[in-house]
Design goal:
63% of the residues lie in helices and 5% in strands. The chain is mainly α and 883 residues long. The radius of gyration is 44 Å and the shape is elongated. The N and C termini lie far apart (91 Å).
């Protein structure tokens, strides 16, 4: 007869006890999952038996005592010191085991003549074999005595002796009961007995009971711990504020190490070594756990593993092969020592690898096996898994974790060629979030490439990384070996590419590890081209895409390029903001790459008159080895421009000449990228060495890049200042025109101011003053405060009244503007402010040809010959809006 349910079980025990008191023998077997209340029932029957005047003998089995002969029997006898236990021996004259069991049974029968005898054995699954034989003998031979035997064991216990249970079941006075876990209704009843919350309602109580049942599985021990943990902590304010929210129960979730986790650990320890091992294996495998995998991981035979898993599920610890709550899973692994945990993770990786399980799951176990700081010897198969898992993580956007996997794979056993390929890929991925760390990884790879140990597939990404770091000379030295082509100047391909070619790549390529370097070079090519304004939207789009990819390293690259493009157009504030963002995106400031945004920031701060901020950046000590790349050259130039602005021409000249030496030595001498000769000439002019300055300017004008408006403009300006004063006005006019076409408003304003002074020196005072005022206005629009102060030192920069007064002084007579149509007046106003024809066409939604026609008519009506003669006080009319 088998009964289930607590109420029925208590009734059965009371009946059995009453029968015993009445002089009848009874045997009751209580079975339940660990923590499900069997010990409580044993204690209950012992308590009531003692209260009824019975003699209670009590014992508890333990795994560590299972191999101690007669250990449980000694507990029974010694619990009340009723008689001495016979000592069977194989020696002559000593009682045999059968005789000892007969003596034991006789002693109990004799005791039962005075009062009923109740034997209680808890955790019988851990009782030693000899003690079980004594209990079996008693069950067979004490049927007529008032003896109640109550044994309690864990259901599906791997250590349970099936012969013992079978022998008990053969007795007519045997009763068997199984305690099931609490139902949801019973959990609600238990919860209702607790002190109700001040915010509780029927809805919240029902929600709490459901959650308690879900987490505990109806295990009374776990439920009690959950309720204790819940009532021992304050209700969260969010739950108190909204007690009706079903998603926010009024009790806290169990935490690792709390009462609930401790109760889980207790249940697992009481489940025995096999149960604990199976629970750990299931916890370790997580979502990948199957019965077969858990069995292989523990090394148990199939039958023992099946019983152990069934026992864990019967206790409510597992649902299928999953723990009901993360705190329970953590508790299963918590007491595992580091060495054992490492071995388990390694074995789990092996088991999953043999089953061709998900590569990410295998990789996680391999990583965890290294968490204790012990080296992990990965074979070729495991290296392949780590590489595949890293690529899968990249698809999910987790570059940092992918890098961790490749770091582990790089230390595995295998072909050296494979290892070098892994390290190249690792550097690529690291560049996504930490360019400085990626740069540190390139040294060994570069040596291997120079030694011819890398193939073309490995050299290409390595060269791309070098290009992204500004190391053009090293990249150029590698690529011919891979491509079989003769080496060319490292900057030639970049600078000489047409805007159309660069934009075709920008339109077709998506941002990836393989394309980040070509896309960055395409943007830089546009910055150096005759159409630098096209680099602004492309760099902005790539910056937004890098941010969507959650790649701070890429974000820093394109923020720096966007800042450089804006600086090239004279947008100082925008350049400052994005250069700052580029530096902030970097986890560390090491390596050569930070020199690129720092260079833009120094130049922007210098032009804006923020000399203190520029000084903090310019005075930073940069190792000489980092100054040989393009980023380092840009930094050197920026530092020189700052020193020139704060009247340190000797120091500035030294920086500019060092830039020239490095550029010439590295075969990257392209003024379209960095016009060091005119920078040095500017410093020489400050030092009174006009002849040397003119020589450098003329030398730059002979180079092919002098056909580009920007290079031509800055070269002509220096040539005019250093050359024949009689030709200064004409040459400066050419410089102004070239710089307007280049799109650089700050350099255009600088040349316009020089032209204004030259006109004044030539006797054209009015024209010169108008030109200087136009230059000042253009510099002020660009927020080039330092240049404004240089052009008109006494002109106020912020006072509205002064602006209004200056505008009224410069306003032409009404009859002058009356000659112009509204369209002509709009074009003339923007041209006077320094905008190029292309910028005017974009602003007014006109074609460039139409702008040129309007300006031709304006020149004729106002009787002037160039845009430098345009009056600065033209009243702006409302801009048209696009259809």
């Amino acid at each position: 007869m088998t009964l289930t349910g607590r109420e029925a079980g208590i009734d059965l025990l009371e009946t059995a006890l009453a029968d015993c008191v009445a002089g009848q023998s009874r045997i009751v077997l209580i079975e339940a999952g660990t923590g499900c209340g069997k010990s409580a029932l044993v204690d209950l029957v012992a308590e009531r038996a003692a209260a009824s005047g019975a003699l209670v003998l009590y014992a508890v089995g333990a795994p560590e005592e299972q191999q101690v002969p007669l250990g449980v029997l000694r507990q029974l006898v010694n619990s009340e010191q009723v008689f001495a236990l016979p000592r069977p021996s194989e020696g002559p004259g000593a009682p045999s085991r059968i005789e000892a069991m007969q003596a034991f049974c006789a002693e109990l029968r004799e005791l039962s003549l005075d009062c009923p005898v109740v034997l209680c054995v808890d955790d019988v699954q851990y009782a030693d074999r000899e003690s079980l034989q004594y209990v079996q003998y008693l069950a067979r031979h004490a049927r007529t005595a008032p003896v109640l035997v109550v044994v309690a064991g864990t259901v599906h216990a791997p250590a349970q002796d099936p012969a013992f249970t079978t022998e008990l079941m053969r007795q007519p006075h045997f009763r068997r009961m199984r305690l099931e876990r609490l139902t949801a209704a019973e959990v609600a009843l238990v919860r209702g007995r607790q002190e109700p919350s001040a915010h509780a309602t029927e809805a919240t109580e029902a929600t709490e009971a459901t959650e308690l049942h879900r987490i505990s599985g109806g295990n009374p021990l776990l439920l009690r711990a959950l309720v204790e943990e819940a009532t021992g902590r304050e209700v969260p304010e969010s739950a108190a504020a909204d007690p009706y929210a079903p998603s926010a129960p009024s009790f806290p979730s169990p935490e690792p190490g709390g009462p609930f986790a401790q109760a889980v650990a207790t249940c697992l320890r009481r489940s025995g070594p096999d149960g604990l091992a199976l629970a750990r294996a299931a916890a370790l495998l997580g979502e990948q756990a199957t019965a077969a995998r858990v069995t292989r991981l523990t090394g148990l035979d199939t039958a023992a593993a099946r019983r152990g898993l069934a026992a864990l599920e019967a206790s409510g610890l597992l649902e299928g092969l999953r723990f009901r709550h993360p705190a329970a899973r953590a508790a299963a692994l918590e007491e595992c020592d580091p060495r054992t945990r490492t071995a388990l993770h390694r074995d789990a990786a092996r088991v999953l690898g043999e089953d061709r399980g998900p590569v990410l799951a295998v990789a996680e176990h391999l990583l965890a096996a290294c968490a204790e700081g012990r080296p992990l010897d990965c074979g070729p198969a495991e290296v392949a898994v780590l590489r595949d898992a890293a690529e899968e993580l990249l698809v999910r956007g987790d570059a940092r974790e992918a890098a961790r996997l490749l770091e582990l794979a790089a230390h595995g056993r295998g072909d050296e060629h494979v290892e070098r390929g892994i390290r190249v890929r690792l550097a690529q991925i690291t560049a996504r979030f930490d360019p400085a760390a990626a740069e540190r990884q390139l040294g060994e790879l570069l040596e291997a490439a120079r030694a011819g140990l890398l193939d073309a597939e490995q050299v290409q990404p390595l060269a791309g990384l070098l290009l992204a770091q500004g190391q053009f000379a090293e990249a150029a030295a590698l690529l011919p070996a891979a491509l079989g082509e003769p080496a060319a100047s490292a900057l030639d391909t970049l600078v000489d590419a047409t805007a159309a070619v660069g934009e075709r790549l920008l339109q077709s390529a998506r941002l990836t590890d393989a394309t980040v370097a070509p896309l960055a070079q395409a943007v830089r090519s546009l910055i150096c081209s005759e159409h630098p304004e096209r680099a602004v939207p492309w760099s902005r789009n790539l910056l937004e895409e890098a941010r969507r990819c959650q790649a701070p390293g890429w974000s820093a690259v394109f923020a720096a390029l966007h800042a450089e493009a804006l600086l090239r157009m004279g947008d100082l504030r925008g350049a400052y903001a994005h250069a700052t963002a580029a530096l902030e995106a970097l986890p560390e400031r090491g390596g050569s790459f930070p020199c690129a945004p720092a260079a833009v920031l120094i130049r922007a701060c210098t032009a804006m008159g923020r000399f203190t901020e520029a000084s903090r950046l310019a005075d930073r000590q940069v190792p000489k080895g980092l100054l040989t790349g393009l980023h380092g050259l840009a930094f050197l130039r920026a530092r020189g421009l700052y020193r020139l602005a704060v009247n340190q021409p000797h120091a500035a000249l030294a920086d500019f000449l060092e830039v020239g030496r490095l550029m010439e030595g590295g075969r990257v001498d392209r003024p379209a990228f960095l016009p060091w000769r005119t920078d040095a000439a500017e410093a020489l002019l400050r030092l009174g060495e006009g002849a040397r300055a003119e020589q450098l300017a003329l030398q730059q004008l002979t180079l092919p890049d002098a056909q580009r408006p920007y290079v031509r403009g800055v070269s002509l300006r220096i040539k005019a200042l250093a050359g024949d004063p009689k030709r200064r006005t004409a040459v400066l006019g050419q410089a102004v025109d070239a710089l307007h076409r280049s799109g650089d408003r700050v350099e255009a304003a600088r040349a316009m101011a020089e032209l204004g002074r030259a006109l004044q020196a030539d006797g054209s005072s009015a024209k010169g003053s108008a030109m200087i005022r136009s230059a000042w206005n253009l510099a002020k629009e660009s927020e080039a405060t330092a240049l404004c102060r240089e052009i008109l030192p006494d002109a106020p920069l912020t006072t509205p009244a002064a602006r209004d007064r200056a505008a009224s002084e410069a306003t032409p007579a009404a009859g002058t503007t009356a000659k112009l149509s509204s369209s002509e007046q709009r074009v003339a106003t923007l041209a006077a402010q320094g905008l190029t024809n292309r910028e005017i066409s974009a602003k007014l939604y006109l074609t460039v040809s139409t702008v040129e026609q309007h300006l031709t008519r304006v020149y004729r009506k106002l009787q002037i010959t160039s845009r430098g003669d345009l009056p600065t006080g033209l009243s702006p009319l409302p801009h048209p809006t696009p259809a």
